[in-house]
Each structure stands twice: as C-alpha cells, then as structure tokens.
Amino acid sequence: MITDPGSSRVKAVARLSQKDARQETGLFLLEGPQGLKELVRYPEIVHEVFVTEAANERYASELNQLRDAKCNIESVSDRVMEKLAETQTPQGVVAVVHQLHVNLDELLGAHPQLIAVLDRVQDPGNAGTILRASDAAGADGVLFSAESVDVYNGKVVRSTAGSLLHVPVTVGLDLASAIPIMRESGIQVFVADAGGTPITQLSPELLARPTAWVFGNEAGGISHELSALADQVVSIPIYGSAESLNLATAASICLYTSAFAQQASR
Where are the membrane-spanning stretches (predicted)? Predict the structure, then answer.
C-alpha cells in the first residue's frame, strides 16, 4: 500500500491535474466509480488505478474485472487519495488513463454523419455537457479548437459522465482550416448563433445530411470569420422572456434536431 502523500510517485500522478503534465505524458485522471465502470469496457486504455481499502471492497466487481484484464491496481491510504483526487470529497478511486483523441483525417475517414465543434468554449461544465449530449444524440465526433478548454481537464472529464470514452474527440484545431476540410469531405457546416435562420425553418431533408454544428464562446459567440466559412448560420427561437439559452442547452437542441432528422431518414 502507498501511504506517503509526499512520495515522488504520488506527486507525479497528482501533477496530472495540470495541463502541461497531461500534455507531456499523454495521460489524464479519471476519478470516481462512474469512470471505473466505464474502464471495465476499455481496459486497454488503463495505465494504473489507485484505490483505498474501503473503495476496494465497495467496487470489488469492477476492480477484479480490471485485474483479470492485467491492469495495475494500487492500494493507497486515505491521505494519499486526498492528494490524488481533484474533488472535495473523494470516492476512493482514481484511474490514470491514456488520452484518446484522434486527428481530423481519422475522424473524417470514418464518414461521420453528425459532429459537434467547440469554438473557444471555456467553461468546463459546458464543454463536458456538450460532449455528453453529443454521445446521447449519436454524434460521431467532437472537435475542440485550440483555444477551447482542455478536454482532459478534470471538470470536463467529470461533466461528460463517461461519454469521453465513447465519442471520438479531436483537439487543438484551427477551425478556420478545419471547416473547409469538413465541407470538402461532404459535411455541411452549421454555425449556431443568434440572428441566423431559425432551426424550425430548416427542412428535414437538409437536417438529415451529414452535419457539423459549430458552437461558440459563451460570451463572444462565433467569430465573423468562422460564420463566413459555414454553409449557414442557424438560431434557436426563444418564445418566452429569457434573454438567451445556456450554451450546452442550445447545443443539445441543435444536435438532437439533426439526430431526429437523420434517424427518420434511415
């Protein structure tokens, strides 16, 4: 059992809460029982798992499955777990996992039908929720611009509720270059922004085509440069008195509107 919170090994793992350490190692932290249950399905991406005695009993089934898959499981003291975990009340298990992102060519080579694109999205909760909504809507990928929050940020990872492991992700993109590439590959690009064509006016036939939805910065929206590169700017009507919709809520509506049309066309 690892009992010293100040050991070099514990410090190295705790550093993964920082972006530069994640970039150097190609690893990230996946905390809690939900992540553990997901890893049972993907043991090949596990680097190592740290678990307290209490959690070892509580999640014995999942941990034994990972042991059977030859994953390295280390017991740690509660004090060490407090050092490793990013949450205020750790649940006794932290996994170190290999990063999963793919490049744009790989993603487009799989002939995606629905993609979410994040342009300078900064809020971890919004980013994670959009990725989770993309997974639920059956999207084939989520693209992060270079200026967006790191997808492996702990708050983003937790907000995805496991969906980070389900949906191909591309990171660090220059969207001014990526949007023309997507269009050339046969994907129409819709920018979600106020002042565009109401989504309710788009035909089912149009919505059923392969589509990438671009969602912009929480405060600044989409840049004029990116809007000019898209096929269409699309808005969501507001029928009540609210000034605007939360970004993740708006993204969910757009993604599901496309998903409904695509499913119906099949």
Answer: none
